[in-house]
Amino acid sequence: MQDTIIEKLQEAVECGKMKKDSPYPPALKGQDGASELTVNAIEAGIAPADILNKALVPAMQSVGEKYAQGQIFIPQMLLSANAMKEAMKHLKPYFQCGDIKRKGVFVIGTVAGDLHDIGKNLTAMMVEGAGWEVIDLGTDVSAAKFNAAIDEHPGAHCGMSALLTTTMSNMPAMIQEIKSKHPESKIIVGGAPLSERFAQESGADAYGREPIDDVNWLNSLV
Ligand code: B12
User: Fold this and answer.
1) Cα separations (Å) of 11 from 17, 19, 59, 100?
2) What is the pLDDT of residues 156-193, one digit of tens each?
3) Is the pTM of this model over 0.85?
4) Does the beta carbon of 123 lie inside 6 Å of ligand 1?
5) Which of 19, 48, 124, 146 is the Cys-Cys partner for 33 at CB 3.0 to 4.6 Å?
6) For a pocket test of ligand 1, which of 163, 167, 196, 215 has the largest count of ligand atoms closer than 8 A to its C-beta?
7) Ligand 1: does its nearest atom lie under 6 Å from the Cβ of 188?
């Protein structure tokens, strides 16, 4: 019974079924979505940490890998992330009371001067789905804002996104400013115009072409 609910919840998140009345995907019309299945799981006595770690995290891991391999595209990844968020709404109280432990804190933002946030948002949702607490600073974020967020969450790691060749050039100085105040915080950079080589030359600890790269890198730090 418990295994069936976990399996169904994982499937609902993977295929982006948010709620029973959600029209997508048509094949699951009228069936419970991530929201109802999470409630069922809690009522069936499944530990909230197991709901997260045995259903939601594997579902989002699979979604991230399928996206990186070109088997699914941005709209499907967004639907899965939204289904995951529906499930997370019911788990929130258990995070707050400490029943579910997060892996750590990840601070993310789009770099100063840059307003593009679609890739950054996707990355934030995937990292949250992997069991991290995400502090999303939004767009046009300065190094000072990153530093203030790390002050509040000591030991947090950072992610920076840039979509413009003009704003990616702000990254090296921002990374230096953050590293000089918080040498213990690791920084990953991503965004369409970036490359592994640029990340290395900027002083970042890692480069992520896809959100799943960020998830795997963060998990390797735990
Ligand atoms: C949508 C868009 C906009 C929207 C942004 C809306 C929003 N809320 O984000 C608006 C209309 C606001 C906009 C404005 C501008 N834009 Co624009 N925009 C685009 C567009 C069409 C799509 C970008 C996008 O969202 N892609 C989809 C996402 C999912 O991809 P992504 O961000 O790369 O993210 C993926 C990865 O890179 C990775 N990733 C991203 N961030 C991170 C972070 C980490 C840590 C990790 C691990 C991974 C990761 O994960 C994602 C999933 O794979 C691109 C063209 C294109 N085809 O890319 C132009 C584009 C980026 N824009 C461009 C330009 C020039 C501008 C403007 C300067 C236009 C103008 N003259 O005003 C302004 C700049 C405004 C500003 N100050 O930022 C140029 C940039 C050229 C360049 N070489 O710098 C592009 C390439 C268009 C072009 N061909 O000329 N834009």
Assistant:
1) 8, 13, 7, 22
2) 999 999 999 999 999 999 999 999 999 999 999 999 99
3) yes
4) yes
5) 19
6) 163
7) yes
